[in-house]
Design brief:
This protein is of the alpha/beta class. Helix content is 38%, strand content 23%. It is built from ten helices and ten strands. The strands form two sheets. A six-stranded mixed beta sheet has the order 6-7-8-3-9-10, sandwiched between helices.
């Protein structure tokens, strides 16, 4: 009996995005299989976050296709992309700073809120049961990221590393099949980066999800990613394992500071 062939979790085919005369993404293609952690690396301005923004519907590509689990999502709205199962974090943390840690996660679970406005206003049985479900779900996620004892604290009172974990918990509240992490180790010291590597790996294994991440910390990339795509000025200059791309002469010239 032949083995069933499943579609990649994410496939981008010859995607281009221009801003005026600037080719932010230039004929970009990538294929990411289930369970992989794939890194996007390259200098500032290489087009990495623009790729995330095209996947999540913030921008629509000028050409090319984006497929998620075999479904064409090119140009879909951010809301639709999130509903389909793609979650993301941002380079600059975007929490609801004045709300509690718990409230940040509950808000992200909003698509689970199956009650309507009159039911919410009247606090019907359906409303109270669903709210209890959302609170339990949020607490479970906070336990996974080690923030259960911070549930009642304001998000902006957390240390930087904990805010990063909260942002990941909030993304996981969408129950994504694909998680996009935009520089999760930004601002972290060596010990925090090492802890992050273990944390992201645990998230991948526990939830059986696929991860695409932008990262500048090469130690994080080396210790965490299965494969990497290296960009420079919107173009792909290397694809391979972290060891392979780190030894690529063009990567060394463009990104690692070699000559």
């Amino acid at each position: 009996m032949s083995k069933e062939i499943t579609a990649p979790v994410l496939e981008m085919q010859n995607v281009e995005k221009h801003f005026g005369g600037v080719h932010a993404i230039d004929n970009f293609s990538v294929k990411i299989e289930q369970g992989q952690i794939h890194g996007l690396i390259g200098p500032n301005g290489a087009g990495k976050t623009t790729i995330f923004n095209n996947i999540t519907g913030i921008y629509a590509p000028d050409s090319g296709k984006i497929l998620f689990l075999g479904k064409d999502i090119t140009g879909s709205s951010p809301h639709k992309v999130a509903q389909l199962g793609i979650g993301r974090t941002f380079q600059n943390i975007r929490l609801f700073s004045n709300l509690s840690v718990m409230e940040n996660v509950i808000i992200a679970s909003g698509m689970d809120a199956t009650y309507n406005m009159p039911q919410a206003l009247l606090h019907t049985k359906k409303y109270t049961e669903r709210e209890k479900h959302l609170q339990d779900k949020a607490m479970n996620l906070l336990e996974i990221v080690g923030l259960q004892d911070k549930a009642g604290e304001r998000a902006n009172s957390l240390p930087y590393g904990h805010q990063r974990k909260l942002e990941i918990a909030r993304a996981m509240a969408l129950e994504p099949k694909l998680l996009l992490l935009d520089e999760p180790a930004a601002g972290m010291n060596a010990d925090e980066s090492k802890e992050l590597v273990e944390f992201v790996r645990q998230i991948r294994d526990r939830f059986d999800i696929t991860i695409l991440m932008i990262e500048h910390h090469m130690d994080v990339v080396t210790n965490l990613c299965d494969y990497c795509t290296v960009l420079n000025f919107g173009k792909t200059i290397a694809v391979g394992t972290p060891a392979e791309v780190k030894s690529d002469p063009e990567v060394i010239r463009a990104y690692l500071g070699g000559t």
